[in-house]
Amino acid sequence: MAERLAPRRLTPDERWLPPRFHTRSRAARRLLGSAHSLAFAADRYPLLVLDFEFSIRRPEGPVARCVSGVWHAHGRTPHRRERILPTAEVVLLLVLGPPLRMTEPAKRGATRDLSGAWLTGPHEHPILNEPLGETHVVGAVFAPGGFSAFLDDPVDSVANRIVPLESLTCSLGHGRELLAELTPCLGGSVAIEAVSRALAARLAPPADYERWRSAAEALSDPDVSTVAEVQHTLGVSRRHFADRVRRRIGLLPKSIQRIARLRRLVAELDARKPIRWSSEAVGAGYFDQPHAIREFRRFTGMTPVEYVERRRQAWGHDLEPGEAGRFVPEITR
Questions:
Q1: Beta bridge partner(s), residue 95
Q2: Given 25, 45, 63, 287, which is the most exposed site by the fewest CB atoms within 10 A?
Q3: Whole-angstrom Cα distance, residue 57 to residue 243?
Q4: 91, 129 Cβ separation under 8 angstroms
Q5: Residue 3: CB partners within 8 Å, gap ≥ 6?
C-alpha cells in the first residue's frame, strides 16, 4: 500500500483563495480548498501546474478598520498578462522579486516597471499587469477610504495612477523600512505578519476618519439605493459631500457605487454553467440586462459575454465564483 501523504494545515487566521493559478482539476481544487498544502496536491497530482502561491489575512486591532487584507504572492502565473478590474481600494505593493510591469488605466496609459514599494490607486478602468519573471510580492489592500489614515495628501492624488511610495507624504515613509523587514522573510505567514505590524504602528487617522469611513462603507454597498441617502445621513451639502468623498476615497460617490455594483456582478458570475444574464444583472443591482452591459463595457472595456469567454478560455469551466474574477487573463491568439 502506498504511503499516505499527510497534509499541512494552515493557521486558523490564514486562508487560501480559490486556486485561479493552480489547476483546472476539480479534485485538486477540493484538496486546496480543504487547506492542504500545495506540496501535498503536487505530490498527488504531479502533472498539474501548481507553481503560484497566494495567501491573505485580515489584520487585527484598529488597523482592520482601514486595511481589509495583507497578502503574499509567490510563483509564476501561467498567463503573460492580466487585466485588474476597477476598484475603489488602494493597494500597496512591496516587490521582493523581479519587477512587475503595470500599465495605468487607459486615460493615462503610462507603463511602469515596479521594484520596491509602490501603490496602485483607486481606478475606474482596468490596470494591465505583466510580471517580468517569477512574482514575489507582499501587499496590503486598503478598504475604500482606508488609505486616508496614512496619507497626508488627498487620496484622489493617486486615483487612476501607479505611483512609487517615496513620492508621497504619508506615515508609511519611503517603504525602505518595510522592505528591510521583509528581506529575510522565508514564508507568506511571516511576511504578512511583518507588514500587518508595520501598518498598525504607522496608523494615523484624521479626527473625522470614522465619520467618513462609514460613508465609504455605505457607498461600497450595492444595496444602498442612492448617493443621496448616504449624503443625508451626514447632513452635508451635495457639493461638500462629493468633495470630501473624492479627497478621502479618491473617486466621486457615483463612481464608487457603480464599481461596487460591477464587483458584485463579477464575484457572483459562475462561468461553469450557462448564465442567465437578465437574472444576474438584476441580482447585482442593475435595472436590467442592457444597463448591466453598458456599465460593464464602460468600466472594463469588454462586454459581460466577452469577459466570461476569456475566463473559460483561460480556466475551462472549473473556476469558482469569487473575487478572483477581478483578474482577467489576456488571451494571446
A1: 116, 137
A2: 287
A3: 32
A4: no
A5: none
d(CA 85, CA 327): 7
Separate counts of helices (H) and strands (E) for the chain? 11, 10
User: What phi and psi, each to the nearest 5 degrees, are found at residue 123?
Assistant: -140, 145
Describe the crossing of helices 209-219 and 253-268 by its angle, rounded to 10 degrees. Answer: 50
Q: Which residue has the cell 464599481?
A: 259
Alpha carbon of residue 202 to chain centroid = 22
* The model's pTM: 0.82
Q: Which CATH architecture has domain 15-201?
A: Sandwich (2.60)
Q: DSSP assignment, residue 19?
A: -
Residue range 191-219, pLDDT digits in tens: 999 999 999 999 999 888 999 999 999 99
Give per-residue pLDDT as tens, 214-241.
Answer: 999 999 988 876 899 899 989 999 999 9
Task: From 333, 322, 320, 331, select the one nearest 24 (Cα to Cα).
Answer: 320
CB within 8 Å of 92: residues ≥ 6 apart: 117, 118, 119, 139, 140, 142, 165, 172
pLDDT of 267 over the 50 cut = yes
